[in-house]
Amino acid sequence: MAIRSSIRKGGVRWGEFSIEVGLACCTLISVITTAAIIFVLVKETLGFFSHVTPAEFLFGTRWVPLLKPSSFGVLPLLWGTLIVTVGAAIIAIPIGLASAVYLSEYASAKVRSTVKPVLELLAGIPTVVYGYFALTFVTPVLKTVIPQIQVFNALSGAIVVGLMILPMIASLSDNALRAVPDTLRQGAYAVGATSYEVTTQVVVPTALSGIMASFLLAISRAIGETMAVTLAAGATPNLSMSMLESIQTMTAYIVQVSLGDTPAGGVAYQTLFAVAALLFLITLLLNIISQWILRRYREVYD
Questions:
Q1: Predicted confidence (pLDDT) per residue in 24-33, tens digit
Q2: Phi and psi at residue 293, in whole multiples of 5°?
């Protein structure tokens, strides 16, 4: 008591104060890092737009920034990113949601404690491994079914990205479903609803905001995926509707420019930051939407 009173004598708790300072420094580092990234992106992107008009960049249909004659239409990269993301969502959303419903509503405690860690183990696999998995397994299997498919193709990239985001959808959706109060389930059973009706008409609609948030977060990750699509989908920017051909995503182009073959300071080098800034805005928008949905979800059950 004497020691504690001596520490508090000046109205200062030095232990707590040092912890607060440490936490504030950690927060400040995060803020400074984010601000520095945004500053570099904005600075280099403005330099790029001093040579290329925004209309040419956003609506051009030909992306050839490293060769002469140059063309800076980003639509082929946007299209490649879109078809991989949509393909991954088509694969991951139904399987992930079905897995979440099973784990939350039907699986026993023993099965759940075994299956969920195994499912989430997929999230710990490095993305470059998924890329090589696509090259050495997924694409050869697809080639036996579709002989005309190219070695690098959008379909293979969509499949492996779908496998990557599946654990996120399953885990977050499972948490949303388990957050639904049991009183709602019991009330539905009390009026004669079957287990299927309780799941589809009570539990899933009630947890829909949390489920939608998991979809958006997973799609945001799919848009920003780099190594898997770089290895699986190739590096050919085009606006083809076929998923059997090689395409290039925005992240794959960033990897291509970052290899060091492009001289720094030129317009071709600045395309790296212009594409990164556009990718940043897209993922930021998706994250804002998902966080808004999550806030609504938390308000319902607080």
A1: 999 999 999 9
A2: -65, -40
Burial level of 19, CB count in 10 A (0-12/13-18/19+)? exposed
CA dist 230 and 154 (Å) reads 10
Place of tokens 């958006």: 216
CA neighbor of 158 nearest in space, from 84, 209, 243, 223 = 84
Point out the residues of the chain with pLDDT beneath 70: 1-12, 260-262, 297-302
Tokens read off for 43: 């600075």
Alpha-carbon gap, residue 275 to 277, rounded angstroms: 5
Q: Give the pLDDT of residue 12.
A: 56
What is the rounded distance in angstroms from the CA atom of residue 19 to the CA atom of residue 36?
A: 26
What is the rounded CA–CA span in Å between residue 232 and residue 95?
Answer: 22
**Is the CA virtual torsion 52, 53, 54, 58 positive or negative?**
negative
Which residue is associated with the tokens 């960033």? 254
The span from the CA of 209 to the CA of 297, in Å, is 6
Tokens of 190: 């009390």
Check whether domain 63-301 has CATH 1.10.3720.10, yes or no: yes
pTM: 0.84
The CA distance from 166 to 254, in Å, is 25
- Mean of the per-residue pLDDT values of the chain: 86
Per-residue confidence (pLDDT) for residue 1, from 0 to 100: 47
Per-residue pLDDT, 269? 85
Query: Phi/psi class of residue 234: alpha, beta or left (left: φ > 0; alpha: ψ in -120 to 50)?
Result: left
pLDDT, position 300 = 53
pLDDT at 297 (0 to 100) = 60
Q: Where are the domains of the chain?
A: 13-50, 63-301
Q: What whole-number distance in Å separates Cα of residue 269 and Cα of residue 20?
A: 42
Return the structure tokens found at 278: 């556009």
